[in-house]
Amino acid sequence: MPKPLRRLPGVESPFVLRPELLTLVPHSMSTIDRLEAEGKFPGRIRLEPTNRVAWLRREVTGYLRHLAKRRQSAAKEDLINQEFVTRLKQSGPTQGSAR
User: Fold this and answer.
1) Distance (Å, whole) CA 45 – CA 18
2) How many angstroms separate the CA atoms of 26 and 30, rounded?
3) Residues 6+ apart with CB under 8 A from 10
4) What are the tens digits of pLDDT across the range 60-72?
5) What's the DSSP call for residue 51?
6) What confidence tens digit (pLDDT) does each residue in 72-96 have?
7) Which position among 15, 33, 56, 74 has the lowest Cβ density within 10 Å, counted as fewest Cβ atoms?
8) pTM (2 decimals)?
């Protein structure tokens, strides 16, 4: 079996192992498995010659950026909807609603 490479101080590994992944991503492992099967989460790779798996750090980071952008756009949409409801309430009843 080949010797493992030494870790260099201050150099981040290009791989994210399962324990670290669970601290980075706001999902449970079963949700990650499901999203991965649906093609909505980066795929894992097997680290030879061990049975361990890992994810590429750059792909996980890209997924987190996508998730953050999606949440920001949803928050903006909620704010717009709130402003619309507030304006409707301020304008009072419309003529068609009084019966």
Assistant:
1) 11
2) 12
3) none
4) 999 999 999 988 8
5) S
6) 887 777 777 777 777 777 777 666 5
7) 74
8) 0.67
Give the domain ranges of the chain: 15-85
Better-predicted residue by pLDDT, 58 or 91: 58
Q: Can you tell me the distance from the alpha carbon of 13 to that of 5, in angstroms, rounded to the nearest whole number?
A: 11
| Token representation of residue 62 | 């890209």
The amino acid present at 55, given as its one-letter code, is W
Per the DSSP assignment, residues forming a β-bridge with 56 are: 15
Distance (Å, whole) CA 48 – CA 21: 19
Rounded CA gap, 4 and 11, in Å?
16
The values of phi and psi at residue 71, to 5°, are -70, -40
Q: CA-to-CA distance for 33 and 42, rounded, in angstroms? A: 10
d(Cα 30, Cα 8) in Å, to the nearest integer? Answer: 32
